[in-house]
Structures are given as structure tokens and as C-alpha cells.
Amino acid sequence: MNNNSYTEKEIYQQPEMWKQVFEMFESNKGEYQNLATKYKDYKIILTGAGTSQFVGDTIYNYFIEKGLDIHSIATTSIVVNPLKYIKKDEKVLLVSYARSGNSPESVAAVELVNQVSKNAHHIVVTCNEQGELYKLKDVLKNMDAILLPPETNDKGFAMTSSFSSMLLASSLLFSYMVKDDSFDKFNKFYELANNTLNKAEEFTNIIDLKNIDRLVFLGDCEFYGLTKEARLKLLELTQGTYATFYDTFLGFRHGPKSILSDKTLIFFLMSSESRMRNFEQDLIEEIYDENKVNNLFVLENSSNNKNFDRVQYINLENNELNNIYIALHYIMFFQIFALRQSEKQGFTPDNPCPTGEVNRVVKKFTVYKGEF
User: Fold this and answer.
1) What is the 3-state secondary structure (H, E, C) of 161-207?
2) SS3 letters for the chain?
3) 28 vs 22, 33, 104, 261, 274, CA distance in Å?
4) Pick from 320, 318, 273: which is nearest to 299 by CA?
5) From CA 70, how far away is CA 62, in angstroms rounded?
6) Rounded to two decimals, what is the model's pTM?
7) How many Å apart are CA 290 and CA 271, to the nearest integer?
8) 111-134, pLDDT tens digit by residue?
9) What per-residue confidence (pLDDT) applies to 64?
10) How many Cα atoms occupy the beta-carbon half-sphere of 45 within 13 Å?
């Protein structure tokens, strides 16, 4: 670690932030179990904007499989028309993710959902006790809040420890709803984090984007949601220098594969489940045999795969963990990758867009009133 930026410090502090979050839940287990029991039979909507939305996009598949009625819908969609997503007076729990809680959509989404349903309840997961969203808990009787350690309120432009800590905290809460004890392997997950950071630094030195103009991130289910965040980190920290794309393994064949060229780099985020891996291996082999793309990188949790001489395999050796824990290791890899590419291109990671077209917190805009 070079300690040159807030962004770097906030990436590297993540294992300790995860430990603090896990210990917070262990210390207050009864309180969080009661909260989980209260809402486990609700329709649950995970919401946020940008990176905060991708928290929900990453975890909702995992908890659907465990039995929850859970969805991921961006605040940027709800604010436009909440009736497209919530039925009148529906029994719904809105879980709002926010680093600062000051984005225009954050408070607006809560207010609009309350307009639509008299049976709405809210849980805010945030990193900022001074944020407008967190302060609503003192006003609204139908709101609970989970406040994360203040260090997770990233000072850097890009969300890093805020993203992963919100993802872990809400996953722990939902694990109480479905009695999922796989999160008890936290110590193993924590111990492997340094291995992930080391591998990220090692392979970032190997990966050369000199002749690359587009990058593709492919993943399935939880890891499909994660591809959105992985590609956004590179896009943000290099101010759009590279065209970045994401898709599922099977979905990529249906048109998006047209973007492949000798200037493409592909990251494959491998699943841990054997049936899904078969589909994923087939696409890797297909692209390999076509011999059009030479920059193929497989982010892996197991050594159980076919090996091809032009494919780089990055095995994080964490296949004993559940998919949420694997996803957290995967995203830490991509955060390091994006950070180092930003530095190589001469950007300032803490402020990669000094001209102000995009900002750490989205500028205020008009939220139009409506009758719902």
C-alpha cells in the first residue's frame, strides 16, 4: 500500500471495517434478530442509486434462494414512478442504502413509498449519521436504521468500504431472517482478505491496458450484480477512458458479444456452484477457440477448471465461503485494479473528474410531486 490517497486507504481498511460490522451484529444479536423476525414475511425492496443500488443487485438473488420475497429496485426508478414497483397499501419493507444519505433520491424514495402504502416500513443502512436519510429515523415512526462505523463514510470519490460494509451488514440481517449459519465462517473470510489484496496487487502489475480500449465483466446471479459495480469502479476512476460492459455468461452471446476485438479484455467472475460453472466454462472455451481476444482473465474461487494457455486464472482460494463472502473478495480485487489503472493513467483517484460533471454526492435536482 502506498498511502497516497483516501481511496487506497479505504480499500485497504475494508477487512477491519468488516470485522467491526460483524462484531456489531454479534454484540447486538438479539436486537437484530428481533428486527429480522419483524420483517421476514414482508415484500422486501432493496434500493439505492449508483453503487448503493448495486449492493441490492448483488445480494438479492442469494436471499431469494433462501426463501425471502426480495427485490432490488433503484431509487432512480422508484422516484420516477413508485406505482410501477409497489402496489397501493402493499405490505413492503424498503431497505435504503446510502453512503452519505444526501443524494436527492434517497429521501424522495422514502417519502413516495409512504405515499403509496400505509403498510410501508423502512430500514436505512448508511455510513453517515449527519445525512438527511439517517435523520428521518427521528421523524418517521415506521423507520429503523443501521449506522455503520464512521470510517466507512468514504472520503474518496468512489464508494469502496461503504459499498462492502453496507452489503455485509444487510446480508447479516437477512441471514437472521432465513437462519443461514454460513456467515459464521467470518473468521475464515477475514483471514483470506489479505490474500485477495495481495493477489489483486500482483495481477494488476501483470495486466497491461496499453492496447485495450474496452473491458467486459461477466458474472451470474450474485456475481452478475457485482459486475455492475466492478465495471463502474474502473469507469469512475479513469474518467471514462475505457468503454466498460457487463453481462451474464449466457446473455453475452445474445448480441453483446459483437463488441469483441483484439483490443478487448474480459474478466470472468466464476460461480462456486458446479452446474453454473459448466455454462461459464463453455463460454470461456468458446471465446478462447475463436482466438479473437487474447486478454482473458478468470477470477476464480476454486482450482477445479479447465486450463487454457492464453487464459490467466486468478484463484482467490475461497470456495469454502458462501457467495456473499466470495463477492466481497471479488469486489476488493476490482477496486484495487481500478485504483492502479487510475494512477497509471495519471488521474487523482480521490477526484478523478475535477471538472465536476460527476461528483461524490449527486447534485440536487427537482423531484416532481405527484398523487399516488
Assistant:
1) HHHHHHHHHHHHHHHHHHCCHHHHHHHHHHHHHHHHHHHHHHHHHHC
2) CCCCCHHHHHHHCHHHHHHHHHHHHHHCHHHHHHHHHHHCCCEEEEECCCHHHHHHHHHHHHHHHCCCCEEECCHHHHCCCHHHCCCCCCCEEEEEEECCCCCHHHHHHHHHHHHHCCCEEEEEEECCCCCHHHHHHHCCCCEEEEECCHHHCCCCCCCCHHHHHHHHHHHHHHHHHHCCHHHHHHHHHHHHHHHHHHHHHHHHHHCCCCCCCEEEEECCCHHHHHHHHHHHHHHHHCCCCCEEEEECCCHHHCCHHHHCCCCEEEEEECCCCHHHHHHHHHHHHHHHHHCCCCEEEEEECCCCCCCCCCEEEEECCCCCCCHHHHHHHHHHHHHHHHHHHHHHCCCCCCCCCCCCCCCCCCCCCCCCCCCC
3) 10, 9, 31, 52, 36
4) 318
5) 10
6) 0.95
7) 23
8) 999 999 999 999 999 999 999 999
9) 98
10) 23
Interval 135-180: pLDDT, tens? 999 999 999 999 999 999 999 989 999 999 999 999 999 999 999 9
Decide if pLDDT at 62 tops 70.
yes
Q: How far does Cα 272 stand from its chain's mean position?
A: 18
pLDDT tens digit string along 23-38? 999 999 999 999 999 9
Q: What pLDDT, on the 0 to 100 scale, is given for residue 30? A: 97
Please report the sign of the dihedral spanned by the C-alpha atoms of residue 303, residue 304, residue 310, residue 312: negative
Q: Which domains does the chain have, with CATH numbers?
A: 6-180 (3.40.50.10490), 186-345 (3.40.50.10490)
Share of the chain above pLDDT 90, in %: 87
Q: How far apart are CA 334 and CA 362, in angstroms?
A: 23
pLDDT of 362 reads 65
Q: In whole angstroms, what is the distance from residue 214 CA to residue 258 CA?
A: 12
Higher confidence at residue 223 or residue 348?
A: 223
What one-letter code names the amino acid at 176? Y
**Quick check: 267 and 281 in contact, CB under 8 A?**
no
pLDDT at residue number 344: 93
More confident residue, 314 or 302: 314
Residue carrying C-alpha cell 416532481: 368
> Residue 53, CB half-sphere, CA atoms under 13 Å: how many?
15
